[in-house]
Structures are given as C-alpha cells and as structure tokens.
Amino acid sequence: MRDRGRWLWLAAGLLLGALGAGLFLGQSRPVEAANDRFEDYVMCTGTAFANVPVRGGVASPTDGVWILDYRSGKLQATVVDRSSGKLVGWAEMDLVGEFGIPPRQNVHFLMTTGNISYGQSVLYVAETSTGKFGVYSLGPKTDGSPGVVIRRHDMVMFRKS
C-alpha cells in the first residue's frame, strides 16, 4: 500500500511538471522589432537621454527616432519630449560624406539600434559597398539650446572594399 502511494505521488508530480513545462515553454514570445523600411527609407527607434531630467527633475529615458533616406544619404534623428508628447526638433547628418561614398555610387545601408547602457541606445550603420561601419548616438545640443545632435562614436572597416 505504501509503495502504491509513492507511485501515485510520483505520477502526479511528473504529470503536473510536464503540464507546467508545456504551458511555460509553449507560449510564444512576441517579436519586438525596432526597425522598419519602405522603398528608400529606413526607420529605427531606441531609448535616449537617460540622464536628462524631465517631469519635476526625475531622470527618465525617452524614445529616439532615426530615419535614413537612401536617395539623399541623409540620416535624421529626433526624440520625443515625454512631458508634451511632441518631437524635439530634427538633427541631420550627411552619410554620403560621412562614409566617403563617391557621387552616383549605388549605396547599400544597413542599420539597427542597440543598448549601451540603461536608457541609452546607439545606432549601428553599415554601408556594404564601402565596407564601413559607424556607431552613432543622440545627445543634447552642446550650446544648451533645445534639440538634439547626432554624435559619431566610431567608424571602422568591417571588410576590405
């Protein structure tokens, strides 16, 4: 009788364990994408400004938006002001000059965001025809005026062109 009780508890434990594992592992995680593209445009989002006080002096991250226009080779970026819900001006960078791309050359940009610290993301941009890879971030203007600037942190070759 004692052995039968042990086998019953073992079977119940195995059944509940299998059921719990099936429920936990069977749920799919939603795919979170911070990039999208349409024709000649690419858009990425990521957090920015972890150390800028907003709403009563509390430091809080906000969303940054990056848009790349293939035709003009322009990278534009802005952030969302959390208190008003509005965009804070646009910063612009000429990637054709930045990557040293000759005029009329067919360009192939890839870009995505990544996190370097809590509340601060960077933009990774690769140009496949030149083999160059750049790292950029958004920051407040250095003169104290409202708005943002795009800062380049690094530019390296990921392959020989």
How are the strands ordered across the major sheet? 1-2-5-6-7
Tally the beta strands: 11
State Rg. 24 Å
The proportion of residues in beta strands is: 35-45%
Mean pLDDT: 81
Q: Unreliable runs, pLDDT <50, ≥5 residues?
A: 50-56
Number of separate domains: 2
Total of DSSP H or I helical runs spanning 4+ residues: 2
The shape is elongated
| Main beta-sheet annotation | 5 strands, antiparallel
In terms of structural class, how would the helical and strand content be classed? alpha+beta
Q: State the separation between the terminal residues, measured CA to CA.
A: 78 Å
How would you spell out the order of helices and strands?
A: HEEEEEEEHEEEE
Work out the helicity level.
10-25%
What report would you give on this structure?
- The chain has 161 residues and is of the alpha+beta class.
- It folds into 2 domains: 1-30; 35-157, no CATH class.
- It is built from 2 helices and 11 strands; from the N terminus they run H-E-E-E-E-E-E-E-H-E-E-E-E.
- The protein has helices at 2-26, 95-98, and strands at 35-38, 41-48, 53-54, 58-59, 62-69, 74-79, 91-94, 109-117, 120-127, 132-140, 148-157.
- Strand 10 (132-140) and strand 11 (148-157) form a beta hairpin.
